[in-house]
Amino acid sequence: MDGVTWHAEIKATTDNAKLGGYNGEYTQNAGLRELYTDITGGDWMARLGKQQVVWGTADGMKLLDIINPTDYAEMAQNQMEDSRLPVWALNLEAGNTQIVISEPKENVFAGLNRGTGTS
Questions:
Q1: Higher pLDDT, 76 or 31
Q2: Could you tell me if 49 and 32 are in contact, meaning their C-beta atoms sit under 8 angstroms apart?
Q3: For a 10 Å CB count at each end of the chain, is N or C smaller?
Q4: Who contacts 93 (Cβ-Cβ below 8 Å, separation ≥6)?
């Protein structure tokens, strides 16, 4: 094993009024935004924890980002990485192969689907 690193992105305070009084785990204002560890060895890498999995970028579009849901509550005001909601996942990469096992979550629209799951 070559190395182990940790990453955390935590908001010490949140603006509960920003989303109409809702401040759940899966919003742009979540207190625990990201928390994961990277483990590397040889030609492989594993990332485990609450994270964003990004596949490709195009000017202002997220065509291939299918792992992480998007919070559209403030969609015209934020960068893509801020509106993309991190989920609990295991991301394995070895050579040209990537395997992602993630928690299923829906996109969030202002005033809609609060407190609903994917089932």
A1: 31
A2: no
A3: C
A4: 44, 45, 46, 99
